[in-house]
Amino acid sequence: MAHAAQVQRMSRLMFKTLRDDPADAEVLSHKLLVRAGFVRRTAAGVWSWLPLGKKVLANIERIVREEMDAIGGQEVLLPALLPKEPYEATGRWEEYGAELFRLKDRRGGDYLLGPTHEEIFTQLVKDQCTSYKDLPVILYQIQTKYRDEARPRAGILRGREFQMKDSYSFDTADEGLAESYALHRAAYQRIFERLGLDYRICAAIAGAMGGSKSEEFLAPAAAGEDVFADCPSCDFAANTEAITYELKPVDAAGAPALEEIPTPDTPTIETLAAHLDVPASATLKNLLVKVGGEIVAVGVPGDREVDMGKVEAHFAPAVVELVTAEDFVGRDDLVRGYVGPQGLEKVTYLADPRIAPGTAWITGANKEGLHAKNVVAGRDFEVDAYVDVVVVQEGDPCPNCGTGLKLDRAIEIGHIFQLGRKYADAFQLDVLGQNGKPVRVTMGSYGIGVSRAVAALAEQHADDKGLCWPREVAPADVHVVAAGKAKQTELALEIADQLGAAGLRVLVDDRPGVSPGVKFTDAELIGVPTIVVAGRRAGEGVVEVKDRRTGEREELTVAEAVARLSA
Questions:
Q1: What does pTM read for this prediction?
Q2: Is 531 helix (H, G, I), strand (E, B) or coil?
Q3: Hey, CA dihedral for 86, 90, 91, 97, is it positive or negative?
Q4: Environment class of residue 501 by beta-carbon count within 10 Å: exposed (0-12), middle (13-18) or buried (19+)?
Q5: Taking residues 539-563, what's their average pLDDT?
Q6: What whole-number distance in Å separates Cα of residue 544 and Cα of residue 531?
Q7: Is cis: bond before 317, omega within 30 of 0?
Q8: Cα Rg for the chain, rounded, in angstroms?
Q9: Cβ–Cβ < 8 Å for 504, 532
Q10: CA angle, 529 as apex, 525 and 533 as ends, to 5°?
């Protein structure tokens, strides 16, 4: 009886496979997880986990727990329904914007559904830890998080409710934070290797989390929303939002004087370049935005696009908006389609490092139908701040070695941050130091998308027939198929019981009235690593053992099959 739970009979399993893809499914994982009966949509961005899906989710949680415990992490469980005040203290009640689920209780009190728990963990440690002897400490939880996505999509990849492991380290010194960060980084590598995920560790920006050093763990996949750059010649890898280039001024001593030239009907870079017969890269594009109601100009080479995500990250938490026609009214220095950085009044000028001091450009003359050439940065206009704001392209030089970068799409499966003292400062998290004086605690924050990892695995481990789960996360070790009537079913149940008794997790398809063809199709769709078929030679006690991933098949007796699979 101790092994009975290892065998799941599909005749008693709540699941239903679909032959066709869901009408709203765009990515592979969404299609396959729904078709195979792992998840079902409850509402936009909200999903129910069915028995098979919950087994995969639980296996991922188990692996995460084992590796977190191995580095000394202590598991807790904090509430998902949280008061407003802690998030107001750090400014994140407003910073999160529309993505934060806000609600009121019957007494009018403000609450939120937690997207992440830095504030609450900081308060917990402030309450529990008073001396340097209580630190360092690593706390973690696996819990449901919430984010009010504007456009939930891609199934469980981008939902409004999701499972996440978030952990937090608390140390008395920066050296301790670096050590806690390194422990998490190594633990994450072990976790993703055990999960069977192909991943890259990439430099990243901290965003609303704050802090200094930040790295992402990205799983390459066509469905990914992140774009990362990989250098084929060195170990450089980074999210494109985090790539920065050195500012390299040039000598402009012999540059000709600025000259205005007539350029009628050329309000775009394309029309200007065609009119002057010059490459777009010789022109300076100036994008106007509003930040906190004030106009800011962003300059990039004319052949490049502005990455608005980078602009928003630079000005965060302030909101960045594009200018409208109304913003040009009463501004003689702003001529739509002919804006140049020289002569701008009360406008902050932000530029990409490619607009380095000494470089010369063709740009707007701030007059209708006129542009200016030989406009030199640092001579004819000043840059208030240099920020990498262009969209990174394939072939851009590696910041480390200069080799052309390769770009790929990926799913963010983990993110680690050295937060420093941002949250400790907000809540005055101090402990008594060795010298008897207060010491401000320093923190790290580390997340893994547990439910997102299920989707990433489905994206990376599938073929034209269905899912192909790595063994450690699969809903079962062996899928036994009874391909026939009473004799085959009897043998299938017999070998399933023997495999279960040997400690294997077994899914046995004993469904009456279901054809062998449907059972075979479902077995390949569900994706358990090993498929055992009790078929035409069942009377001889012989079964077929098939590797789901490679398709290799072998006929073995029941005893041989049990010995082979339980070895």
A1: 0.88
A2: strand
A3: negative
A4: middle
A5: 95
A6: 8
A7: yes
A8: 29
A9: no
A10: 75
Going by pLDDT thresholds of 50, 70 and 90, the confidence category of residue 2 is: very low
CA angle in degrees (0–180, nearest 5) for 407-408-411: 140
What pLDDT does 241 receive? Answer: 85
3-state secondary structure of 173: coil
What pLDDT sits at residue 4?
42
Written as six digits, the tokens of 315 are: 């000005």
CA 392 to chain CA centroid, nearest Å: 18
Q: For residues 539 and 487, give the distance between their C-alpha atoms in angstroms, rounded to a whole number.
A: 7
Dump the DSSP string for 232-287: SSSS-EEEGGG----------TTPPPPEEEE-TT--SHHHHHHHHT--GGGBEEEE
Query: In the structure encoding, which two tokens stand for residue 186, read together?
Result: 């190594």
Backbone dihedral angles phi then psi of residue 376, each to the nearest 5 degrees: -105, 130
167 pLDDT more than 80? yes
Beta strands across the sheet bearing 294-301: 320-322, 284-291, 294-301, 348-351, 385-386
Residue in this structure with the two tokens 């608390």, named with its chain if needed: 170
Closest CA to 228 of 408, 394, 389, 405: 408
3 pLDDT higher than 60 = no
Interior CA angle at 541 toward 537 and 545, to 5°? Answer: 70
Average pLDDT in the chain? 94
With contact defined as beta carbons under 8 Å apart, do 224 and 409 qualify?
yes
Q: Which residue has the tokens 């098939």?
A: 546
Percent of the chain with pLDDT over 90: 85
**Cα angle vertex 464, ends 462, 467, to 5°?**
30
User: Could you tell me how many helices (H) and strands (E) the chain has, helices first?
Assistant: 13, 32
Give pLDDT, residue 211. Answer: 60
CB 254: neighbour CB atoms within 10 A? 5
What's the one-letter identity of residue 152?
A: P
Model pLDDT, residue 205: 77
Long-range contacts of 141-144 (CB under 8 A, 24+ apart): 141/75, 141/76, 141/77, 141/78, 141/117, 141/165, 141/166, 141/167, 142/61, 142/64, 142/65, 142/75, 142/450, 143/77, 143/78, 143/80, 143/114, 143/117, 144/80
Contact (Cβ atoms closer than 8 angstroms) between residue 226 and residue 411: yes
For Cα atoms 489, 475, 7, give the angle at the middle one, nearest 5 degrees.
Answer: 40
Angstrom distance (rounded) from CA 170 to CA 282: 51
Average pLDDT over residues 343-372: 93
Dihedral of the alpha carbons of 67, 68, 72, 75, in degrees to the nearest 10? -140
In this predicted structure, what is the pLDDT of residue 317?
A: 76
Tokens 């763990």, residue? 217
Place of tokens 């077929």: 544
- Average pLDDT on 32-43 reads 96
pLDDT at 27: 94
Is cis: bond before 136, omega within 30 of 0? yes
